[in-house]
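Note to self: user wants both folds in one dump. Writing first protein now.
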Amino acid sequence: MAKRTARNTGVLLLMVVCISGTQAAAQHQDAITPGQVWNDVTGNPINAHGGCVLFYQGLYYWYGEHKIEGLSETTHADGGVHCYASQDLVNWHDMGMMIRLDRPENEDLTHECNSDRPKVVYNATTRDFVLFFKLYLRGMKSQAGFVAVATSASPTGPFVYRHKFLGGNSPEGTGDFAMFKDDDGSLYHLAVRKPDKAFVIGKMRDDYLLPEGEYTVCEGVTPKTEAPALIKRGDEYLMLASGSSGWKPNAARAFSAKSLQGPWTGYGNPVSGANPNNGLGADLTFGGQSNFILGVEDREDAYIAMFDVNKPEHPFESGYIWLPIFFKGSEMHISWQDSWDLRIFNK
């Protein structure tokens, strides 16, 4: 399987390189422009919301929720998980749908279910790419928040749906979550628990497919903390998150800890500046909400905070805010940039 996966990825890399050479020069981008429409290399808006980025064998893979044009969140705009690939984090190639929500109404992944915040993790032991996403079943609204699990032998799928689970030791499951892989390969599910809104952590099995045991409350994390995104920097864990206000933006919050279980120490809102595209400042996180922190390969201490600008009436038009993170001790600092590229980390 390892050889097959390596061969598939080599083909993908060759395909992206070939595509790069044949795209019109007008589609090539040199910088990230937060809050503005971000097109792929063919000129189509990137459709990968609330997602994550995985680096594997020389390529970055951006996974996100595919939103159906013309539908709203209340009319079930979720269509599945979309993937894009890039060598430089600026120019993205459409790799297609990884999984679709188009199955018969008696199945989990059917139209009118709601899915959100997909995360993909590579399991080096099983050699599987494991996809997780928040799943609310058709007709149940947000009564129970499941975590859906799918797997693939390739980063570009197809992903095969395996099952769903309720996390947090709660019959109502969990809401917003992060999947964090530690240095030893152990994977953890960190999430806001339903219905009490406590922030909890549970270790996943070695195959990453189900929780291993009981969840515990993360000491020091403010209740109603949503949209978690984590990194490990040295011997310290850092978390970027938000408050709880539905689709409306609120102030970001940040925490640090020596252990994933806590105690976590909060240090307020790490963002500063204002988004000129909508006039919103740090008190509303530029109109965005965190979903992932991306580590830049081959650059020391280089991380990018990924936010989504949610537009529930027109989710296809929801936007992206990617900003560099700088550090002062254990604290993250994220300031608005109208336009930037990876050279910012050279300073």
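First done. Writing the second protein, which came from a different request thread.
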Amino acid sequence: MRRLMTFILLILAGLGWGLFPAEVNALDTQAHGFGGWAYGWTNGNKYLIGDEDGSYTNSYFALNLSASPYEKLTANVQTIWQTSDEGVATDLDYGFAEWAFTEWLKLRIGKVKSPFGIYTETWDVGTLRPFYTLPPGFYGTPGAIATKAYYGLGLTGTRDLGSSWGLQYDLYGGKMDFPEMTTVDPTTMTNRQIIMNLKNAAGARITVQTPLDGLSAGVSSVAGDETASSVGNQNLLNMSGWHILLCGSLEYLRDPVLFRAEYGRMRMINGEDINYDTFYVEGAYKFLDHIQAAVRYDVKLIDYKIQMPISNIPDENKDLGFGLNYWFNPNLVIKASYHYVKGNVMAVPSDMAEYLTAMLTGKFKDSTHLFVFGTQFSF
């Protein structure tokens, strides 16, 4: 972290900060919105947005605002409202300022959208993906290795390399909070919300655009001091110390074809605790102008290298999904999908007593069928 901060300060000093003079503009503002609603049903376990009773209350709306009061300055903010069976939640996805020295050197500072993998910067934009939910192994809990934003500062930029090659890079440092997850506290036999974060983090991402129209490949990495804590039992997961997260991405987007694949892993740098490995492959094809067929295979594997509070904790989640979508236009889509799921890292009983019994005995219902029907829109 100290080296990254020194690097950024040296660049700013070398450019003389480039802050003044700057042209004052008439306030240039933009507003965008991303939303959706979906019904989810499963044959028993609770998984993603579905349960055995059928869940109708899955909805969200994210409002994105940007303003450019000066020639080189852009302020960005995004807030999200979500409803589920657990209630209503509101959160600040990100809020940051960007100063553009040049197209290949921009400074971002604040709560900044995370440059890690493919979907982190478009997390809520359902009209940019073929399934209602993001790939759960990579972006879902427990064990998500990606998060929407980081607190700190970073550099980003793009560069034309010639001969139809292009490069986008990101360097950043600060703190990252990962989505909360639920586990069982053996001392009280109750559910606990676990908060995981990465402090003093330093990360980088490089994405290369190739001469083949629509094809890009990228690598991402971030390392920092990770902790997992829960109110009432601070060491429930016994995770602390320096960890590194790695990701490789491949994407091909050219109508009517969509293809994306990512592999990610998390390891402790000096020692061993819990290893995460995840990957997904998804493809989609649009035909008859409005209809899109999609398929996705998503895997999450967890390897517990340390003694856990309960010995029967699930360690895998495998999701094979098939989707059929109707696109009214690029900003409005109706989606239907079926998912066959093996494993219980993410598919668990809805009833708490059942969940606790399954954790103690290891007798989970290890296969789950999920049906999702809904809509997503953007403007």
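Dump finished. Worth passing along: The CA atoms of residues 6 and 279 lie 34 Å apart.
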